Amino acid sequence: MADNMTQLVRAEICASTECNGLCTIPLGYSSRCEQKYIQKRLVALETSGQTLYTDLFWIPSCCQCTIVNNN
């Protein structure tokens, strides 16, 4: 854009799908790291480059360690 307008969004992306070493997991269970997302409303530029509009974008927000039963 001519005026160099920017929008900053903080995103957290999981480095791995494993949660190893975060906690002790009982026998018969395993853990996995899952990416979670939030919606953010941002200003976007149409493909013509002439018109601004607002739209919702899914942004990676955090990682969640989930414990699951292996049975």
Automatic annotation (TrEMBL):
One of its GO terms (cellular component) is extracellular space. It comes from the Eukaryota. GO terms for biological process: central nervous system formation; innate immune response. The keyword Signal applies. It holds the Pfam family Spaetzle. The keyword Glycoprotein applies. Keywords: Disulfide bond, Glycoprotein, Signal. InterPro entries: Cystine-knot_cytokine (IPR029034), Spaetzle (IPR032104), Spz/Toll_ligand-like (IPR052444). One of its GO terms (molecular function) is Toll binding. Coiled coil: none annotated. This is Spatzle 5. It comes from Papilio xuthus.
